[in-house]
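Design a sequence for this backbone.
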C-alpha cells in the first residue's frame, strides 16, 4: 500500500474507485498468518508486554 494512495483516499473520500484500489492493495499486503491460541497466563503477559512496547515505540 502506498502512502500516496492512502493520502489520496483521505483527500478524496467520495472516490470509490480509489477506495476499492486502496482496500484491494491493503488486503494483498496483509499477512495471512494465524497465531496459536493463548494457552496460559504467561502467554497473556508476554502479549501485553509486546503491545506495551509497540505503543511506547510508536509514541516516541
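Sequence:
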Amino acid at each position: 500500500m502506498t502512502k500516496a494512495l492512502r493520502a489520496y483516499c483521505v483527500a478524496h473520500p467520495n472516490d470509490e474507485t480509489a477506495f476499492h484500489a486502496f482496500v484491494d492493495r491493503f488486503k494483498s499486503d496483509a499477512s495471512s498468518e494465524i497465531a496459536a491460541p493463548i494457552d496460559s497466563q504467561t502467554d497473556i503477559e508476554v502479549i501485553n508486554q509486546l503491545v506495551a512496547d509497540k505503543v511506547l515505540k510508536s509514541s516516541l
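Residues 1-31 form one domain.
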